[in-house]
Amino acid sequence: MARRLKIITGLILFTFVTVHLMNLAIGFFSLPLADQLRPVMMFPFSNRPVGAILFASVTLHMFLGLQALYKRNTLQMTRHDTVQLVTALLIIPLLVPHAWSMIANKQMLGITPGYFELFQFFWIKEPIAGIRQVLLLIVIWVHGCLGLFTWLRIKLWWPRLANYANLIAVIIPVLALLAFVDGGMRALGASGFDPAGYAREPFHSQPGSNPPTQPHGVSKPGKPDSNTAGITFNNGAQIQKPNDKNNRPVETDPVKIKQTQTFIGQVKWRITYGYLALLLAVLLARAFRLRGQCPELEVRYASGDVVKRPAGMNLLEMATVSDIPHANLCRGRGRCGTCRIRIHDSDGKLDPPSQIERDTLTRTGSAENVRLACQLTPGPGVITIERLIPPDVQPHQLHNAKSSANSVSPEPMAEQS
Asked: Who wins on pLDDT, 142 or 79?
């Protein structure tokens, strides 16, 4: 159930991030067009029910990730899993300042800045926040793609779409980052600083149209832009924002604006520090759980390899940290069945299969003495096992085998003792 919830919440969040970055990527070609399309593209996520689902998905996905960290028996892992874990832990501290500030400013002050106003903020007023945004984009995209592609790589139809998906996975973030840089250069140009001649023309004009005489979002003296209100940047431009679609009035009292923004900043850091405290508590609880696991487990492979480690790790983790090649296409999620082993002997009691392991073993037609290495955590003692699937198995081989006891797997390997 936890794995299924993790997949569902991850898909919801990745869909939102993809649409958001696609909208920003359009800004590389035309920032005004990106602003115009923003309400349309983000419309599915702008209503309260979907907003509540997004918030619930972020919260649940975070807690499921912390639960997985707590249950980890070792922090020695593959590079793939290391990157996915590190990026997962970085998302909340990088996301909270931006997400909370945007939501709070809209709800409390009625301010919803356009892209150009955001670029002015990130490039002129708070460049550290701009760097944080770039890191957030990279971290959240890498984490999402690793999780999504790991889930999809064992699907029957995935090989036909993999090349296109890989191309899209590169194009979207690259264009989004280019739009961020391009918009930032033009914001700097509008402020009087001309780092690379970007003051020559604020934005890409549509074919056949006259170049705009004033940068988008910056008001001429005495003539506030109808699209803006209430934010002043270092270049002295007064940015005004209208009432939102619900006719919520924009706050204009400078004292109240300052008090509200101070409150927003305080809450932002409290949430961040709260998350870091929760992460520390999980790590301490994990250390407390593993503190007594000193007895040794000896794993003897039919090939002749012998591994001795403190008990507490599952057999796939034991193989990974000991550099023993072991198939695991789903990277230890219990879905592909390629880490199957045959148990020849064990002097300790083995826990029965979990539901996810039982389902996978049933689907692969496995015998009673066959288990999933990624799901089996033996206690102290000695266990003799045989790997059934070649370590270099490829995803397409899962679907090419003839109907047999291993109907959705390649031919079993012959591991000689």
From this structure: 142
What is the distance between the alpha carbons of residues 397 and 391, in angstroms, rounded to a whole number?
12
Share of the chain above pLDDT 70, in %: 81
Q: Where exactly are the structural domains of the chain?
A: 2-206+213-272, 296-399
Class in CATH terms, 2-206+213-272: mainly alpha
Angle between helix axes 48-71 and 2-26 (nearest 10 degrees) is 120
Which CATH code is given to the segment(s) 296-399? 3.10.20.30
Q: How far apart are CA 191 and CA 233, in angstroms?
A: 9
Mean pLDDT check: name the lowest of 175-179, 279-283, 354-358, 403-407. 403-407
Cα 207 to Cα 78: distance, rounded to the nearest angstrom: 51
Residue type, 270: R
pLDDT greater at residue 123 or residue 194: 123
Domains 2-206+213-272 and 296-399 share a fold: no
- Distance, in Å, from the CA atom of 324 to the CA atom of 368, rounded to the nearest integer, reads 24
pLDDT for the residue numbered 295? 81
Give the lowest-confidence range in 115-119, 252-256, 262-266, 354-358.
252-256
Q: Cβ distance 343 to 385 under 8 Å?
A: yes
pLDDT digits (tens, 9 = 90+) for 242-263: 444 444 567 777 888 889 889 9
Residue pair 138/173 in contact by the 8 Å Cβ criterion = yes
